[in-house]
Structure formats: structure tokens, C-alpha cells
């Protein structure tokens, strides 16, 4: 492909987005450059500390439980207090708790602080995605979410390789490095990001902008269906940081080997996320989500046949393509179905699906690997991918055409209301 065409494509991918988005993007990149705990906790516990896969699964499950506990609370805080204060509180507390975890020695203390880390690190997600929906125009959101996901994986690709090498010498250095970079994210948010929460139009009357509570979210049938399917997809993808390192460790591979294999996930997303997003940006989300669910399930299922580093990397490439398609498409769908003044709560409920998966996936992986073997785990991912694909196909029939913003949440099982208004907070 000519260099000029690549340059024009790159410019088109990043043009037209507000400055605040790019500071939020930078904060995301810095945060993921320090990603250590979620990636290497399993190897830290099983290889460095000598605990069983079941104990490692329990600790990661507590980490996931922390995310479950904080998801909805953080969503409410995002709507009530604002995006910026929620982000600051989450990042400062995450920096403290991650540093503390590195010094824990007793198993009970490790488990307790892992719960705290899960609570604090997950609390920033509803605020980040709600702020992104606030400041980016509806027609640009899939692209914006894709660029943000690209930043996540650019940081992840670098950190997975570097942290894998660091882990060979000192896991404590990895914990302290993540804490430092998370603290830097808090500084960026404080200095560069203004509050973006939409101002409620009281002059229009209560009927024009009805209040949105957690009950409103739960009664939104289509949205809760998306949350359920997101849970299944999350259960599959979480095995990349839970089941895969345990299986590779049991097969005799080192932390550095796993770091190199999983780094291919981030590298491939860095190379393909932007061009693939330009290709799928205006295509049917139903088909995209169905295909990505099947690719995710069967990509992980292929791990049962891997025996060398390159074959493990090949399976990672398959389910990475599913990530590239699924993540921006699904996040765009969530923003599309969320009322303007309920974005925090809707994003909190969506985040909850990932948090519950983070809670259950380690338990599932540890139990299945210890008692049945890794082959059964990878077979289960194929089944989950098939179920999720079918669910997306059924749920997204007659999906309303993309408009601007939904003011009121729909009734249970109904499509979003037709009455919409432009995003008053868009930059």
C-alpha cells in the first residue's frame, strides 16, 4: 500500500476528535504502560510464591470481586459527583493499593489487598467511558473507542514484554512501577482534564429529562441483554491472563515466555486496530459482534492443540482479531443505548459484566485445570463463544438506527425511545 495512502488513512483516523479526548487517551496509555498486577499475578503466586493454581484463582477471584463491588458504586459516583473527581479518587487509591500489595507476605493479607486493588482499579472505568461519550460526537465514538483500545494495547504490549523481564528479577519492582505510573495518570487528570458531565436542563421540565436510577438500567431489556452477552465474552477473554499463564506454566514455560506470547496480543492490536476500525466503523454491528464472538471462542479453543511458543502465539492472534472487532463495536453500542444523564450508571452496569467475569473466570480456570486439565477449559471457551454469537444475532434484530443521544431509558424489553437530542456536552 502506498505510503501516501497510509498517511491519509492515519490522519483520517485521528482527525476531528477534541483535545480533551487526547488527554484522556494519554492517561489511558500511561496507565496501561504500568499494567503488571492483572497480567502477572497468576505467575507471581504460582511460580514466585509457590502457591497452587487454585489459590491463585481464589486471589484473582477476590480481585474480580473487588471490581464487582465497585462497578455500580463508581457508576453512581460518575453521574452524581462527576467524571473527574471519580477518576482522581480511583487512580490515587489504586496507586496506593498496588504498592501495598507488593509488600504483602501472609496469604490472607495478599488476598485482602488483592480485593482492594480490584475495587480501586475498576472504579475508574465507568468514568473514563462516560467522559469519552460526553466529549466525542456520536458518529465518531466507535473510532474514539477504538483509538482508546489501541492505547490500552500499545501500553499493554510494551508493559507485558518489559514486565515479563522485570518479573524474572523482582516482582516487587513491577508492583511499584505500576503504582508510580498510576499516580502519574492521576496528575494528568488533575492538570489537563476538565469535568464533562452534561448539565441537566431544568428549564425543560422534569418530563423532558427524567431521572435515571439503577432500577432504570435493570428494566432496560435490550441493554441488559448486551450486559449478559458482554459477560460471556469477558469470561472468554479473561482466560488470556488467567488460564493461559497457568497452562503455559504447567507446560514448563517461564514468565518471560508467557510475556512474549501475550505481547503478541498487544502488538497485533497496535498494528491492526486502526485500519480494521476504519473498515468496520460503519458496518452492521450485529454481524461484527456475531463474528467476533465466534472468533474469540474458537481462538481460545485452539489453545488445546498448542505445544510450542509459536503455536501459542498463533492462537493469541486469532482471538486478538476478535478483540479488535468486538471492543469498539460493543462499547459504541453501549454508549448508543445509554441515556445522556445516566451514562455513569449504564457504564457501571456494563463494567460490572467484566468485573463478574474477572471474579468467576479465575475460579473456573483453576478448578478445571486442577481437576480436568486445560483441554477442558479451552473446549468450554468454544462453547461460550458459540452461545454468545447466537445471543448477539437474536438480541440485535431490529436495532434502531444510530442517532444522537437518548434522553430517557426505554421500558423493559423495548427499543430506545425515538425522542433524542444532540449531545450538549460534545466538544
Feature tags:
about 425 residues; mainly alpha; Growth Hormone, Chain: A; two-stranded antiparallel sheet; 17 helices
By CATH, the architecture is named Up-down Bundle
What is the CATH superfamily label?
A: MFS general substrate transporter like domains
Q: Can you give the mean pLDDT?
A: 81
Report the structural category.
mainly alpha
Arrangement of strands in the largest sheet = 1-2
Count of runs of 4 or more consecutive helical residues: 17
Task: Give the distance, in angstroms, between the N- and C-terminal Cα atoms.
Answer: 34 Å
Residue share in helices?
A: over 70%
Compact overview of the structure:
The chain is mostly helical. It has helices at residues 3-14, 19-33, 37-48, 53-80, 83-101, 107-122, 125-135, 141-167, 171-192, 214-219, 221-237, 243-250, 255-280, 285-301, 309-337, 343-371, 374-395, and strands at 405-406, 420-421.
Amino acid at each position: 500500500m502506498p505510503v501516501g495512502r497510509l498517511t491519509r488513512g492515519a490522519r483520517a483516523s485521528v482527525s476531528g476528535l477534541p483535545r480533551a479526548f487526547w488527554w484522556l487517551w494519554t492517561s489511558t496509555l500511561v496507565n496501561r504502560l504500568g499494567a503488571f498486577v492483572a497480567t502477572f499475578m497468576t505467575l507471581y503466586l504460582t511460580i514466585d510464591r509457590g502457591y497452587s493454581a487454585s489459590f491463585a484463582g481464589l486471589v484473582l477471584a477476590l480481585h474480580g470481586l473487588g471490581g464487582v463491588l465497585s462497578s455500580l458504586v463508581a457508576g453512581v459516583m460518575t453521574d452524581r459527583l462527576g467524571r473527574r473527581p471519580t477518576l482522581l479518587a480511583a487512580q490515587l487509591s489504586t496507586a496506593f493499593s498496588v504498592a501495598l500489595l507488593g509488600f504483602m507476605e501472609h496469604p490472607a493479607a495478599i488476598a485482602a489487598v488483592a480485593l482492594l486493588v480490584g475495587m480501586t482499579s475498576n472504579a475508574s472505568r465507568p468514568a473514563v467511558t462516560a467522559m469519552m461519550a460526553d466529549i466525542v460526537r456520536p458518529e465518531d465514538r466507535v473510532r474514539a473507542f477504538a483509538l482508546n483500545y489501541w492505547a490500552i494495547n500499545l501500553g499493554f504490549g510494551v508493559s507485558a514484554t518489559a514486565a515479563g523481564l522485570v518479573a524474572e528479577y523482582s516482582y516487587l519492582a513491577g508492583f511499584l512501577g505500576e503504582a508510580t505510573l498510576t499516580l502519574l495518570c492521576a496528575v494528568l487528570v488533575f492538570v489537563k482534564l476538565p469535568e464533562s458531565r452534561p448539565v441537566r436542563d431544568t428549564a425543560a421540565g422534569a418530563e423532558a429529562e427524567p431521572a435515571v436510577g439503577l432500577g432504570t438500567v435493570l428494566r432496560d431489556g435490550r441493554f441488559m441483554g448486551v450486559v449478559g452477552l458482554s459477560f460471556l465474552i469477558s469470561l472468554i477473554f479473561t482466560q488470556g491472563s488467567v488460564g493461559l499463564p497457568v497452562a503455559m506454566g504447567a507446560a514448563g514455560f517461564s514468565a518471560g515466555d508467557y510475556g512474549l506470547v501475550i505481547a503478541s496480543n498487544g502488538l497485533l492490536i497496535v498494528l491492526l486496530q486502526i485500519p480494521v476500525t476504519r473498515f468496520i466503523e460503519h458496518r452492521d454491528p450485529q454481524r461484527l459482534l456475531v463474528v467476533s464472538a465466534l472468533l474469540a471462542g474458537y481462538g481460545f479453543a485452539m489453545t488445546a492443540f498448542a505445544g510450542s511458543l509459536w503455536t501459542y502465539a498463533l492462537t493469541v492472534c486469532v482471538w486478538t482479531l476478535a478483540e479488535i472487532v468486538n471492543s469498539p463495536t460493543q462499547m459504541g453500542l453501549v454508549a448508543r443505548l445509554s441515556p445522556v444523564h445516566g451514562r455513569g450508571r449504564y457504564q457501571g452496569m456494563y463494567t460490572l459484566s467484566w468485573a463478574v467475569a474477572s471474579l468467576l473466570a479465575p475460579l473456573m480456570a483453576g478448578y478445571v485445570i486442577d481437576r480436568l486439565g486445560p483441554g477442558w477449559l479451552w473446549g468450554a471457551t468454544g462453547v461460550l463463544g458459540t452461545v454468545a454469537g447466537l445471543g448477539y444475532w437474536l438480541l440485535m434484530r431490529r436495532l434502531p438506527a444510530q442517532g444522537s443521544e437518548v434522553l430517557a431509558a426505554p421500558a423493559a424489553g423495548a427499543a430506545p425511545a425515538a425522542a433524542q437530542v444532540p449531545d450538549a456536552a460534545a466538544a
